[in-house]
Design goal:
Largest interface: A-B, 45 and 45 residues
Oligomer: homodimer
Mean pLDDT of chain A: 94
Shape of chain A: elongated
Helix content of chain A: over 70%
CATH superfamily of one domain in chain A: Tetracycline Repressor, domain 2
CATH architecture of one domain in chain A: Orthogonal Bundle
Low-confidence stretches of chain A: 1-5
Chain lengths: ~200, ~200
DNA sequence: CCTACCGATCGGTAGG
DNA sequence: CCTACCGATCGGTAGG
């Protein structure tokens, strides 16, 4: 571990780094991970550019740090609260609820909308570590969601001929639509529409 | 009409403008409408920056021109081919086909994926004319799609209690998911998944 | 963690 | 449609 400053302790440096990442997530949510510039981030935080960049080395490392932390927020606010629930349809529906809440209420962390959706659109036609990381996140969550569906089928909560991957594909589509509804249209009835859409996906 | 060049006729200038817009659409599809820079566009076309910008005046006008032309491509390749078909479920299903084809095969025009989806994500947390134009496009297409659903209901092709706006919301979600499937994942079975998803949306 | 700096590129303009 | 240029900002580095 390299001490980044002669003036701040390791604990203080860690706190500064966390503040940078948190602000970076919010800025990237609005302007994209490329639109997230070191200069604006520094000005926002009252720091020098070198002070910001010193914690990461490169812009790409900062982008990856923002995505990694955002994925921890997602895990904490969407997956974790339903982990203790009874496996099957109960947990699946609860998951849909925390997911919709995440898109609706995480305005402080992601004022410009879901950072993963933004990053997916922004990097899907490029190569490199950021694109790979985004693809891995979506793949992992798709797989996990399909697993929840499979469990619900095994419990007899959903028809035996349900295709878990197909359901997962459709559920992601619904949440993409919800994200647009909230941020492009500012629609008030977005969550009601989403709930109906998800019910239909499950009804098969 | 102001002649932009002492050396090119108005017809030639128009052709140049068209080439700029076509290349701009492709670049914006990959790097976004902000990532579309005058300098790269000029270098790509073997022109000077001033030569490019002279046709539009500002970058924002170029962005709007790219979106407007892209919307004409969309109308020509998605809506127009089904206009002559029998109104109702037949036309609706044909529309889904041209739409999926547009996402799958318009790789020359939009190598980085659907420009409207990109623009929606990129501008949804901002103000200004570009955001407004994108929102108007989506609103118009949502309304038109809902109208097709309403027609299908009126023809007895879909249940009387079908909610056309709800169906339109879900259909857009499916196409967002298809766009990701193609460009982030490069998935081969994306169209089959999409067809199944759309069937389920219509089955209600 | 800062100041001071680097070359490259940004959107845009003047003038022809 | 071009050359030549503007101030601002980009990511990043040197050195402390």
């Amino acid at each position: 571990m390299v001490d980044m400053s002669p003036r701040k302790s390791a604990v203080e440096a860690r706190g500064t780094r966390d503040r940078i990442v948190a602000r970076g997530m919010a800025l990237a949510s609005v302007d994209g991970l490329e639109g997230l510039t070191i200069g604006r981030l520094a000005a926002d935080l009252g720091m020098s550019k070198a002070g910001v960049l010193g914690h990461f080395g490169t812009k790409q490392a900062l982008q990856l740090a923002a995505l990694r932390t955002a994925s921890e927020v997602f895990t904490r606010t969407v997956w974790r609260p339903v982990e203790h629930l009874e496996p099957g349809l109960t947990r699946l529906r609860a998951l849909f609820g925390t997911w919709a809440d995440y898109l609706e209420t995480e305005r402080d962390s992601f004022p410009g909308g879901c950072l993963f959706t933004t990053a997916s659109i922004e990097f899907d036609a490029r190569g490199g570590p950021v694109r790979d990381f985004v693809a891995r996140l979506f793949t992992a969550w798709r797989r996990r969601l399909a697993g929840e569906v499979r469990t619900a089928v095994a419990h007899g909560d959903l028809p035996a001929d349900t295709d878990p991957e197909q359901v997962a594909f459709e559920v992601f589509g619904v949440f993409f639509a919800l994200n647009q509804e909230i941020h492009l249209f500012g629609a008030a009835d977005a969550v009601a529409r989403t709930r109906r859409a998800l019910d239909r996906v499950l009804a098969g």
